[in-house]
Design brief:
Layout (H helix, E strand, L loop, with lengths): L4 H4 L11 E2 L15 H12 L1 H4 E3 L6 H14 L4 E3 L3 E4 L4 E4 L2 E4 L10 H7 L6 H9 L3 E6 L4 E6 L14 E2 H4 L7 H5 L1 H8 L5 E9 L22 H6 L2 E12 L4 E12 H4 L5 H10 L3 H6 L6 H12 L1
Antiparallel strand pairs: 1-10, 2-8, 3-4, 4-5, 5-6, 7-8, 7-12, 8-9, 10-11, 11-12
């Protein structure tokens, strides 16, 4: 897993930036396994709801950052991705994009035929390279612009209970305005934007417990009642999921921009907390959350049975 449990799960719990430098040589992208859960869900979203996932401000040129991302992917995973400045190829998918043209150089690499090529061809003009990157890697992507402190471009198929359309073109501080207990985030917004659009690589980790069983958690396509009616600790935990994000920043210093990567993972709660000490640490973190944070994360109504289960699991 790319998620660092020890770094992420802290007590008392605080909504804070939590940035750290990425270790030299550490990877930021995760090549997609054809037919994997990530790819199935991403393909479904880009095939049916691309207008909710691929968003950009009309006057924004994403090419420099997108080309930097393609070059970074080729350097980091040459066996899965190639890029010569004009043509990008995902070897496991048997699909390439040159300019805005889709080229299939092998068939049957995913599923039963040409799903990837058909999906890419139906995307809006100018989005084929972003679409191929989205289907070749597990991460979602956004661009942070340091000149204006905004997020002018997003390719986000697996959002965690937020709508990408609500974030496109907005300032960093405005994006985080709805976050509960956001004082630390908002106070640091300008400094953080300058930091992540500099020359260094950064990462942070986010986690929650959810009753939603899919990676794709767009609010328009999730049940507003996130949890089952049971409040029995064991029955509730059996239907609970450990949802994590590793967020990283790939610098594009020549543009004062960064590509923001979001790697979402989802595991059954019991499996995710099976290692010794994990249930206790999560229990203590949840117990320290404010009422506002519990409500923001959809945990207010289930916090007590979850805490009871975590305490029993912790011994």
């Amino acid at each position: 897993m790319s998620f660092d449990f020890d770094a992420a799960v802290q007590t008392p719990f605080r909504m804070q930036p939590g940035l750290r430098r990425i270790a030299p040589g550490a990877e930021q992208l995760t090549p997609m396994q054809p037919g994997s859960r990530h790819q199935r869900e991403k393909l479904a979203v880009l095939s049916a709801f691309a207008d909710d996932a691929l968003l950009a401000r009309d006057d924004f040129d994403a090419s420099p950052a997108l080309h930097a991302l393609a070059g970074h992917a080729a350097a980091e995973h040459p066996g899965a991705w190639s890029w010569n400045g004009q043509r990008a190829a995902a070897s496991a998918l048997g699909v390439a994009v040159e300019g805005d043209s889709v080229i299939e150089f092998a068939t049957g690499c995913f599923g039963v035929g040409d799903e990837i090529g058909r999906c890419l061809r139906q995307l809006p003009e100018g989005w084929r390279l972003a679409g191929l990157l989205s289907l070749a890697f597990e991460e979602d992507f956004a661009i942070v612009d340091g000149h204006e402190g905004t997020i002018p471009w997003l390719a986000v198929t697996l959002p965690s209970h937020w709508a990408p359309r609500d974030k496109a073109g907005r300032r960093f501080a405005d994006v985080h305005a709805p976050v509960a207990d956001n004082r630390l985030l908002l106070a640091a917004s300008e400094r953080l934007t300058a930091l992540v659009t500099g020359a260094e690589r950064w990462e942070r980790f986010v986690w929650t417990i959810t009753g939603h069983p899919r990676l794709h958690a767009h609010p328009a396509r999730t049940d507003p009642q996130r949890w089952p009616s049971t409040r029995d600790p064991d029955a509730l935990a059996a239907q609970a999921w450990w949802r994590t994000e590793r967020q990283t920043f790939i610098p594009v210093p020549s543009q004062r921009q960064a590509v923001f990567t979001i790697h979402v993972d989802l595991q059954p709660l019991a499996r995710a907390l099976a290692l010794p000490g994990r249930a206790r640490r999560v229990h203590d973190a949840v117990a320290s959350m404010s009422d506002a944070v519990l409500a923001y994360r959809g945990l207010a109504e289930v916090s007590q049975p979850l805490l009871a289960w975590l305490a029993a699991r912790a011994g």
